[in-house]
Design a protein that fits this description.
Layout (H helix, E strand, L loop, with lengths): L9 H10 L4 H19 L2 E4 L1 H16 L12 E5 L26 H8 L3 E6 L11 E2 L3 E2 L1 E2 L2 E5 L5 H8 L5 E6 L5 H7 L2 E4 L19 E6 L2 H11 L29 E4 L11 H8 L2 H6 L3 E4 L7 H24 L5 H12 L2 H21 L5 E5 L15 E2 L2 E2 L8 H7 L5 E8 L5 E7 L5 H15 L12
Parallel strand pairs: 2-3, 11-12, 11-13
Antiparallel strand pairs: 1-3, 4-5, 6-7, 8-10, 9-10, 9-16, 13-17, 14-15, 16-17
Pfam families: Amidase
Protein name: Amidase
GO molecular function: catalytic activity
């Protein structure tokens, strides 16, 4: 039984744990064994505390055996937290040599909520340096490899989380998303990642508590597992002024829904703003009949994204300067050049630049709300490219056009980030070379549940996410 535990759905594992068909110690031990066998080849989990996890699992089993209180929704499920999320008493490096031995004295809100929901802390998952970029490598732990082809990128910045899910190292994962950091790695690793509506999962502590460009969120191997993780993360917090009032348990409702009559828009290049490689579009266009077969109406349409690129890049540079500007001054030589350049870009911004970006984001949001008065969901590529060479920082070209920076291939995600809407990456098939491709389901503001329901229906009709990688070896 334990040999197969690593690929059981988290929802199934949770149910078996509640029924005491399995113990938390069995589940944690099975995942620790899997990490020992497979992690050296993918480098997804970078800090590990086996003894602490087994002790925590034993306490969870004892509480359940003695009937101590209600059974939390994630009881006994192991998790390793993204290495940018503060974990009390456990090293949190941000992928930077400057924080190689940094051990926080607090859990950040996301971590605390998942642990309060019963998740067992195993360790940390790999990230790019300060989560900058959508390819996971850093000078502390090295590169995370794609489970379907270890010469390729796993995406990022939640790349360690995605690779860990795909290889059965973890049943659930957490992450964060500014320009695609939950969605891109999910697409590259054939798992599910949700960028929630800003405020759905509050972030604390944070340099800017009003920030809605970067959002925490969940990942899973299935949409239902992702919703389960979201149910533990979501809900208001008085310290977070943008947090939404809907309680997290609203996302533990069944996701089954009849999609007949839904009005869907398909935007293969986001209105000309994000051209994708032909091999990616070929995979996605072959999936469109699935939606019409489910009874949806499908049009070729896109919201007006004029100015979204400049808006995202301005706000992102400002956020990096706000968070990391002091490090550029004190230890700039220790930062990777692309990150240092982005912080410096933020420092050069003028008040006119920030005023223009703020006004443009407001206009883009209202235009998007108008678009969703005509359509229920927008479909688009998650990534404009298939997983690329892991030795490159970013692809050299996209759709035949040379890239000039490490952001250029991420437009299909980051143009959506500035709109203030939920977006879900769901497995959608494979290239002829066997590389995963995800489809992005985008909904109106606060329609996270509707997006999850549509993704669940598509997933059930296709089952692309059930194609696991051949276990890689180091």
């Amino acid at each position: 039984m334990t040999d197969a535990l690593h690929y059981l759905d988290a929802t199934d594992l949770a149910a078996r744990l509640r029924r005491r068909d399995l113990s938390a110690r069995e589940v944690v031990r099975a995942h620790l064994d899997r990490i020992e066998q497979v992690n050296p080849a993918v480098n997804a989990v970078v800090t590990l505390d086996p003894e602490g996890a087994l002790a925590e699992a034993a306490r969870a089993d004892e509480r359940l055996a003695h009937g101590e209180g209600d059974i939390p929704p994630l009881h006994g499920l192991p998790i390793a937290f993204k290495d940018t999320h503060l974990t009390r008493g456990m090293r949190t490096t941000y992928g930077s040599p400057l924080f190689r031995n940094h051990v926080p004295d607090q859990d950040e809100l996301l971590v605390d909520r998942l642990r309060q929901a019963g998740a067992i802390r195993l360790g940390k998952t790999n990230v790019p340096e300060f989560a900058a970029g959508s390819h996971t490598f850093n000078p502390v732990f090295g590169t995370t490899r794609n489970p379907y082809d270890t010469t390729r990128s796993a995406g990022g910045s939640s790349g360690g989380a995605a690779a860990a899910l795909a290889t059965g190292l973890l049943p659930l994962a957490d992450g964060s998303d500014m320009g695609g950091s939950l969605r891109n790695p999910a697409s590259f690793c054939n798992v599910v990642g949700l960028r929630p509506t800003p405020g759905r999962v509050p972030a604390y502590p944070a340099v800017d508590l009003w920030d809605t460009l970067a959002v925490p969120g969940p990942m899973g191997r299935t949409v239902a597992d992702t919703a389960l993780a979201l149910s533990a993360m979501a809900g208001p917090d008085p310290r977070c002024p943008t947090s939404l009032e809907t309680p997290g348990d609203a996302f533990r409702a069944p996701l089954d829904r009849d999609l007949r009559g839904l009005r869907l828009a398909w935007a293969p290049d986001l209105g000309g703003h994000a051209p994708a490689d032909p091999e990616v579009l070929a995979v996605l266009e072959a999936q469109l009949p699935v939606f019409t077969g489910l009874g949806c109406h499908l049009d070729l349409a896109c919201p007006d994204l004029t100015g979204a690129d400049e808006t995202f890049r301005t706000l992102r540079a400002h956020a990096f300067d706000l968070a990391l500007g002091a490090l550029l001054d004190s230890a700039g030589q220790a930062l990777k050049p692309s990150l240092a350049a982005n912080i410096a870009q933020g420092r050069r911004l003028t008040t006119d630049d920030l005023h223009a970006a703020t006004a443009a984001r407001s206009r883009l949001h209202l235009s998007t709300v108008d678009f969703f008065s005509r359509y229920d969901l927008l479909l688009a590529p998650v990534s404009q490219v298939a997983p690329f060479d892991a030795e490159q920082e970013y692809p050299e070209a996209v759709a035949g056009r040379p890239t000039e920076s490490y952001l250029d291939w991420m437009r299909s995600c980051y143009l959506i980030s500035v709109l203030g809407v939920p977006a879900l990456s769901v497995p959608a098939g494979f290239t002829p070379g066997g590389l995963p491709v995800g489809i992005q389901l985008i909904g109106p503001p606060r329609a996270d549940l509707a997006v999850l329901q549509a993704g669940h229906a598509f997933e059930g009709a296709t089952r692309h996410g059930r194609r696991h990688p051949t276990p890689p070896t180091a």
